[in-house]
Amino acid sequence: MIFGAVPLDQAEGGILAHSLTLKGGRLRKGTRLDQAALELLAAEGHEEVTVARLEDGDLDEDRAAARIAAALAGRAEHLHVTEPFTGRVNLEATRPGVITLDRGLVDALNAIDPGITLATVPAFARVAETSLVATVKIIPYAVPEAAVARAEALLGNAGTIALHPLTLREAELILTRTPGFAQKLLDKGRRTVEARLNGLGVALSGVRTVDHTTEAVGAALKDSSAPLVLVLGASATSDAADVCPAGLVAAGGRLERFGMPVDPGNLLFLGDVDGRAVLGLPGCARSPALNGADWVLERLVARVPVTSGDIAAMGVGGLLKEIPVRPQPRAVRPLPEGPAPVDIILLAAGSARRMGGADKLLEPVDGAPLLRLAAEQAVASGARRVLVMLPPDASERAAALRGVDVDLVEVPDAAEGMAASLRRGVAGLAPDTGAVIVALADMPEVTAHAYDALISTWRDDSGAEICRATSGQGAPGHPVLFGRRFFESLRELKGDRGARDILREGESYLRDVVLPGEAAVCDLDTPEAWAAFRARTGR
């Protein structure tokens, strides 16, 4: 292909390289220049134009993309090949499934010619109907036909890319219980597993709850009849000879693999009994968040074989988002001896849009700006450190805090919402911080005693990893304390939802702490709220 600027009298038949806006109309890149187009260019004073010209042996971008996409799809089922447009052809899924592909062939194709490119979803990705699976893109306006022929020959063997539909339709679940194991955890496990299966088009055809013994698990597996059986133990599986995998062997089954290099999800086991696949779920499967078992489950439902070697190869990309509610989060490190320090993040980076032009945090309460009052109460508590989150150019708010022993933290992206302040605040915590209290700066009735009540509850109750203030009538409010197992989740928040999703997921770790009256729910973010507060309190 020849590419470059040519005089107008030599440009007819060339492919316009760059879009041009003219008084007489717009010429888009990729246009074949005819005499009418050249007259438009000449009328506006153009003497030359940049074009691409095909040479003998060249194939234009659309035909090249179409031929390569056809070879890629080959005899594969459940993939739709789109019509070529500007050198691009897409392969789309026609039904939900799991994608397999040959990474070596994809890499080899992309090495044939820089102008020929193929991008795909990752191997073993689960896709929905109409999902884009792969795209062939020819970068220049033409490539040598010989290069296209090499690509076709390379892709000629079936199996470069395939979609495996989610065809397995039923599964059974075995839950185990130990003495004192809470029924609500059994119920939660069932609900979460059923939701996982339903999302893959699989019905949960049976659930058995048995004692956490090798004999009971083995008997339940022998009695199972579904093509897939999931086992969720009350106690984490810590060895291939532990209760649940030993139950598989006792049932006459075969253990294919114990353990996987994916976190969360390490404590998984996989095997089969009488031709039925058996998947031992890690404890983190009680959370709906993604874990390594999901990767194996998706393949099993798509009837893609999973071997011990396949699981061993899942380590790259296997460090998944933390699930803080699992028993041993990876980020929780031992703290020094003695009471762990608690810090406070005071959120004061909002724009006060609902105040009609006034700054709610500078409104006076008891003769001082509300922000100063809130900061002084936080400092007077048993917390070690108070971080006040401020938006850029908040000089008046900063001035209101002069002389108060707090750390001012600017939040450059404060306009995003509360999550930006939380991310910035958690990032500024010291390594030995045991918990953080998230507080709103527009709550005038939250006192040092409120913070101390949260800290005391957290220190006295080993399961109280979230301590939430409520009103005297039990309405949930602020402030809220989060133990360090939730720090990673707080660092990953986005938008203006705050930590509501963390509260919901961490429900089993949540303890409510009652504050007097309306202290936990009295926030002043409108003129009407301020008027009602002053009328009620006289402050």
Please outline what is shown here.
Helix content is 28%, strand content 26%. With 539 residues, the protein is α/β, with parallel strands linked by helices. α2 (61-73) packs parallel to α4.
What does the main sheet amount to?
A: 7 strands, mixed
Spatial strand arrangement across the major sheet: 25-24-21-26-28-27-29
CATH topology of the largest domain: Spore Coat Polysaccharide Biosynthesis Protein SpsA, Chain A
Cα end-to-end separation: 80 Å
Name the helicity range.
25-40%
CATH architecture of the largest domain: Alpha-Beta Complex
What count of domains describes the coordinates?
A: 4
The percentage of residues in β strands lies in 25-35%
Query: What is the C-alpha radius of gyration, as a whole number of Å?
Result: 31 Å
Structural class: alpha/beta
Low-pLDDT stretches are none
Q: Count the helices. How many?
A: 16
